[in-house]
Amino acid sequence: MSTQPTAREQWNSRLGFMLAALGSAVGLGNIWRFSYVAGESGGAAFLLIYLLCIAAIGIPILMAEFTIGRRAQQDVVGSFQSIAPGKPWVIGGFLGVASAFIILSFYGVVAGWSLYYFTQYLTGGPQPPAGGDYGDFFGQFHTATWFPLLWQFLFMFMVVAIVFVGVKKGIEKSNKILMPLLAILVLILAGYGMTLGGAGEALSFLFAPDWSALADPGIYLAALSQAFFSLSLGMGALITYGSYLSKKEKLPGAAVGVASMDSLFAIVAGLMIFPAVFTFGIAPDSGPGLVFVTLPQVFSDLNMGLIYGLLFFFLLTAAAVSSGVSLLEVAVAYFMRQMNWTRQKASVIIGTIIFFIGIPSSLGFGAWSGVTLIGGRDIQDSMDFLASYIFLPIGGLIIALFIGWGWKKSDALEASNFGDSLIGNIWIWILRIFAPAAIILVFLGSTGLLDLLF
Length: 454
Ligand code: PFF
Known about the structure:
By secondary structure, the protein is an all-alpha fold. It has one domain (14-453): Hydantoin permease, CATH 1.10.4160. The chain has helices at residues 14-25, 28-40, 44-72, 76-83, 91-122, 134-142, 147-165, 167-193, 199-207, 218-230, 237-242, 254-279, 290-301, 305-339, 343-363, 379-406, 409-415, 422-446, 449-453.
């Protein structure tokens, strides 16, 4: 069995822990990924299924991750090993570490774009090429070979620097300031969005479901994956963060708080982005470039748009850093224990490896744009697919089953602070039956296997 480090780091306070978990949850997923996936999946119908996934599956699994981590006081692999030694549950831990590598590799590419846009707003804002628009500007930038890699590298450097410094001084401090600021700015920009001509169309796109979209089985898996991605679920990021929480603190409440704030962020971000999409005649399903094309358009039309642009891309980058930190921390915590490395050594080595793994994702937009890996997807999209559509839901399934069946019920109830209450029992049964069944059904339905069975 694994050895426990003598003095494990801890959060300063419960609020610090909650903000760090929120910092992990709120990131590119809420603004960049949410808007383009919602845009591709038909808007309101997708949003509805997404919110259902958060409430019925996301929150119980979020609570499960906190419970496992706080009980085990270990990294994701060590947590499974110490609670259920010698059992196969630990596969969930290894999947988690693998997901951290994959997600951070492509996350760094997009976060690098955001960092570059921030620097553009420092010097007068992005300038579309003669006769072109912001779509052309974005196209020229992100399809280049070397330049985007520089920004990806700088982003990874910041993430490594924070993880290098440690839990309290690095992770906890940065989130306390940035999260509230980002919330305020997104609210202001959504308010401005509501004054644009396309606001009505945006509202009906986001809130008036086209029920026929529900007939497309793909939307369920898209919504489930987005829920996992956005809440940082299914790969042990929240097990790892929970492991730095002292046994004194209460868990329920923290889980609901983080999940509700995260969803609210995504919805308000939608209110900021989609009015612009419709006002400027951009296709909602234009893919991963969506925010990088729509928002500069908005800022260029705004009084003091340069300042808004500067603040927005600063905060988006900061939100990406805090999520990136939680991704790196999953792998770093594991390698520190497994290889007996110091935090400093682990963060530099793992961060460097992840940067290199991310290079193909960046090149896939330009020099390697002909390369398709999974089902016609480009490299970045394939990495996202592998992690978000497959590893995270399977990781979530293992986590749910682990608490539901692999752990003595009374023990799990005690570790979660629910005690033997009604809500605690509902939670256990969701993890035992409902969440696993829902995840499996969504998988079978979306891959067409369900049709084969019936
Ligand atoms: N939740 C983050 C976002 O929405 O941007 C991404 C993420 C972070 C996913 C950490 C998974 C994770 F473990």
